[in-house]
Amino acid sequence: MLPLRYKWFWLGSGLLGLLAILGLALLPMRAPIPVSEGDKLLHMLAFAFLTVWFLGMVRDGKLLRLLVGLVLYALLIELLQSFFPYRSADPWDVVADLAGIAAGWLLASVGLRHWCGRLEALFGAGPS
């Protein structure tokens, strides 16, 4: 991890995001998404957000490990969904997750990488 003053806040918030996404993925859907293939769009956006979030705090040498971890997390969600009668595992959801990871990595590589450190510096909170 980068030497961040509030690294536990950034990491804890990211872990809460992972838990929230898992919870949403396993709960029954109350209403259909009113957009064609809207669930795939939500998958993509969620994983793009997670990728940018965690790339904001990890060192460059940990990039591959983080990306592999997110791919495994996407596969875990689909595996867990297969155990719930009101959910189903869909390989296209994993494809949407992978597209989100790729989009997040692209966003990070064009300027959003290490955003946590830049945000801390902007507010005068350098590394502890």
Would you write up a description of this structure?
This protein has 128 residues and is an all-alpha fold. Helix content is 68%, strand content 0%. It contains five helices and no strands. It has helices spanning 7-26, 38-55, 63-81, 91-112, 115-122. The model has no long low-confidence stretch (mean pLDDT 92).
Would you summarize the structure shown here?
This protein has 128 residues and is mainly α. Helices cover 68% and strands 0% of the residues.
Keywords:
68% helix, 0% strand, elongated
Radius of gyration: 16 Å
> In terms of per-residue confidence, which ranges show pLDDT below 50 for 5 or more consecutive residues?
none
> Which percent range describes the beta-strand content?
under 5%
Secondary-structure element series: HHHHH
**Major sheet, described briefly?**
none
Approximately how much helix is present in the residues?
55-70%
Mean pLDDT across all amino acids = 92
Helix count from the secondary structure assignment:
5
**SS elements, strand count:** 0
